[in-house]
Every structure is written in structure tokens, then in C-alpha cells.
Amino acid sequence: MCMNPEGASSPRAAVRREGRVTINDIAALTGVAASTVSRALSRPDRVNRVTRERIQAAARELNYVPNTQAQALSSGRTETVALLVSDATNPFYFGLIRGAQQQLRAAGHALLLIDTEDSAELENHLLHKVRRSVDGVILAASRLPEQTLSVIAAELPVVTVNRNVPRVRSVVIDSPDGVMQAVEHLVSLGHRAIAYVAGPPSSWANEARWRAMRTAMARHGLTAARVGPFGVSRSSGSVAADALLNTGATAGVTFNDLLAIGILQRLAERGVDVPGEISVVGCDDIFGADFCSPPLTTLTAPIEQAGRVAVSMLLDHLEHLGETPSRQTVLLPTHLTIRQSSGPAPRR
């Protein structure tokens, strides 16, 4: 007796009853080996055109969805990249995340975002936890010791952002040059007593900015004061503002914009005029820096571009494992954006 093509004995009907479609189902429908189906779907160039097209048509007909876990096991790739940030609520990272995600999506990869809560211990723990689930990692503002980073980079493809470690690929935003621009700006306005409001002591960028500030001040025969370290959140601005005032400085260059905005709020509470009595300069030009009160003079950084470049470097690393990289470090320029929080030094 002739059965209906879509009847109980039909391969299509059997697949529909049993649920998830596998390569074995496609093999049964097309009359080829499962290994041929696997090659046609994962490495189509290794299967002749007629067979490949028949297999692909059957896969579409059966609504076949690839098993990404199985593909990862066979290829060693998950097509997922982890991006580790020290604080996902910090607006600095918004552009970085957006740039990285756009670049990864264009390459057919997924982004796994991890917040390390500004903890080197947690960062190290999470890196070891996800290392088998991702193809590589982008570490933004890593708090890990240099030696630990070097060991991790020898075992897992890594690109750092704002952290320069020998033999580790990195994207560095040139905020030290921006700090020098800020010092030149303030000195041109008559400021001679300028203080650096420091961020976390474990931050590579923090120390790089402090060195740049001392160098820039020395060019004018001046000595920079330093207060801190402070947390990188706006709430840290209150104690930072009080410490800045205690130095007697007429201007302060802060580690980041969140800290600078917190300082502006505290100075307003204390009735200190900005920039009439003291000028404040931030770093990063985050969302909100241009409409705080007063609008913040700050270093504008190509944050979104840094995310895209980091992904490009990591994907190039994955394609050329074991080879000497064409680019070890990419340096992205910054520029000073002058707003109303900086002005002429007060007459004393």
C-alpha cells in the first residue's frame, strides 16, 4: 500500500513528532552520511555543489537549528567573546560596550559582558570560570597584577583596554597626553597651584595620568599636588572636594568625570564658585559631562572606537594564533574639550 508522503512513515513526520532536528534527520532525508551533512553545513566548500544544495534545502525544510555547543566542541570555537569591565554602571563603559558589540555582531560573534566590581580577586575568579566558554576576552581597566595578566594572556587570547602589559595586545586611550593638554590650558589661565585628584591605586591609567601631570607641571617649573586615592563614583566626590580645597590649589584635574561631577556638587553645597574660586577638569567626557553645573571641561576620548579596535585585534589574534601580531598596541588620541568649569585663576 502506498503511504502519504506526509504520513506516519514519512521521515518528515517522524522528525516533527520527535522534536529537535539533528544532522541524522537531514542525512535520512537526503540519503547521505551524517558526516557529509556536517561538512556541508559547517565547511560547505568541502562538499560538491549538488550535494551541498540538496542538504541545505533539506535543512531549511526541516527548520534545522545548529547545535552551537556541538559546533564548539568540534571546532574549538564558541564564537563568543567576554568583555570584562570594572563597573558596568559607569557611563565610561557604555560607549566601549556599544563599540565592541557592534564589531562582534558584524563578525557573527556574541558578547558576554562581565562586571568585576572593581575587584582584582573577582576579575581573576571570573576569568578562570568563563575561559572554556569563550574564544577570547577583552579586559577593560584590568585591576590584575601585571604578572597575572601575562600568565592569563599566554593561555587565552586577551586584549586589554587602558592597560599596557608587555607581550599582551592592548588598546590604550592616550589620556596622559590629554592631561598634559589640561595642564597647559590651566597654566595659560594663570593657574600655578594645580592638584591631581587620584583614582584607584590599582589602576594603570591612574598612575599614567599622574606621571603625565607631573611632567607637564615641571615644564613650567611647577610642582603638582596629589590627593587621594578615591573611588571612581560620583559619591566619592564629596570627600575629594574637601581634600582638594585643603591643598589650596586653584585648579584640580580629576581621574574621571564621575569623580569630577561629584566634586562640583560638593563645591556647590559649600558655596564655592566654579570656576571663580577653583577650576575643575575631568577625564573621559562621559554622557552628562556637558550638562552638569557648570558644564565640565574634560578630556574627550574615543571610547566607542576603543571597543571596535579591541574586537578587531582580538579576532585577528584568533585567526593567527601562535603568530607575532602585526600590532601589539594601538594608541588612540584624546583632546581637551573646554567648557565652563575651568576659568582664569582667582587673584589672591
Topology:
Blueprint: H1 11-18, H2 23-30, H3 34-42, H4 49-61, H5 68-75, E1 80-85, H6 92-106, E2 110-115, H7 120-130, E3 136-140, H8 146-155, E4 158-161, E5 169-173, H9 175-188, E6 194-197, H10 204-219, E7 225-227, H11 237-246, E8 251-254, H12 257-269, E9 279-284, E10 297-300, H13 303-319, E11 329-332, E12 335-337
Parallel strand pairs: 1-2, 1-3, 3-4, 4-5, 5-11, 6-7, 6-8, 8-9, 9-10
Antiparallel strand pairs: 10-12
Keywords: DNA-binding, Transcription, Transcription regulation
Domain HTH lacI-type: 21-75
InterPro entries: HTH_LacI, LacI/GalR-like_sensor, Lambda_DNA-bd_dom_sf, Peripla_BP_I
Q: How many domains make up the coordinates?
A: 2
| CATH level 1 class label of the largest domain | Alpha Beta
Biggest sheet strand order reads: 2-1-3-4-5-11
The total beta strand count reads 12
Indicate the low-confidence ranges by residue numbers: 1-9, 13-17
Distance between the termini: 107 Å
CATH architecture of the largest domain: 3-Layer(aba) Sandwich
InterPro entries: HTH_LacI, LacI/GalR-like_sensor, Lambda_DNA-bd_dom_sf, Peripla_BP_I
Protein name: LacI family transcriptional regulator
GO molecular function: DNA-binding transcription factor activity; transcription cis-regulatory region binding
Organism: Micromonospora acroterricola
